[in-house]
TrEMBL record:
CDD domains for the chain: SGNH_hydrolase
Protein's recorded name: SGNH/GDSL hydrolase family protein
Source species of the chain: Nocardioides zeicaulis
Signal peptide: 1-25
Keyword Signal applies: yes
Residue ranges of every copy of the SGNH hydrolase-type esterase domain listed in the record: 62-213
Coiled coil: none
Length: 236
């Protein structure tokens, strides 16, 4: 028979195990709920931003991430694409990138969203991103980029690479170099922005209103310097 002290110890250990198990289950459920809420918010922001059209002239489609949406801004209409020349349409989704697993919100990569986004029949497609691919393997970025270019074949395309946001600056050179190499392979202009010193929100990832204005103005100037953009082609 168990000594009474051993019984108490066994019961105590069981109680602790039950409490820890319950706490872990609560944490997992809470994390899942937080993820679902975040994805729902991202979808709402994406819909709101897509309904906003700025400027006049040739139709421009921006496919991008939270920077194109304007995450963290009071007025999404003032996110950086509004600084581009032309009638600008935005197909952005926060957390998305070139690679399929950059986002945990389902099939929202650039390639996943491009076919629908092209419904606006743009004269120019500007693809902006890379910060959310910071932890993705090169092969995943490569695959996503190639799938995207297949969707955009025949379109005039410019790729805008990631700026050096402080929270992910260490990963930017790798992603930047890979995107530049892939853009050259497909014969589309690559706009590098990793040299910019921009203003960021406290999360050190997203831009302030002033940061959006500066980023948009520089991107517009650099796109103009690369004009005319060439249609994306299959690599030789």
């Amino acid at each position: 028979m168990l000594h009474s002290q051993n019984v108490r110890r066994a019961l105590g250990a069981s109680a602790i195990a039950v409490v820890l198990g319950a706490a872990m289950a609560f944490y997992v459920a809470d994390s899942a709920d937080a993820g679902q809420t975040r994805c729902r918010d991202h979808r709402a922001d994406a819909r709101e931003r897509s309904a906003i059209v700025t400027g006049e002239g040739g139709r421009v489609l921006v496919i991008g991430d939270s920077w194109s949406v304007g995450l963290g801004q009071d007025d999404l209409a003032r996110s950086w694409p509004s600084r581009l020349d032309g009638e600008v349409h935005v197909a952005g989704f926060s957390g998305s990138g070139f690679s399929a697993r950059a986002s945990g919100c389902g099939t929202v990569s650039f390639a996943d969203r491009a076919p629908t986004a092209l419904g606006v029949r743009p004269a120019l497609v500007v693809v902006e991103g890379g910060l959310n691919d910071y932890d993705q393997p090169a092969a995943a970025i490569d695959d996503g980029f190639r799938d995207l270019m297949a969707d955009l074949a025949g379109e005039r395309v410019v790729v805008v690479g990631p700026a050096s946001a402080p929270s992910r600056a260490a990963a930017v050179p790798r992603v930047d170099a890979l995107l530049a190499e892939l853009s050259a392979e497909y014969g589309v202009p690559y706009v590098q922005t990793s040299d910019l010193a921009l203003d960021y929100l406290d999360d050190e990832l997203h831009l302030t209103e002033g940061g959006h204005a500066e980023f948009g103005d520089v991107v517009a100037d650099r796109i103009a310097a690369n004009s005319p953009a060439r249609p994306a082609v299959l690599p030789r």
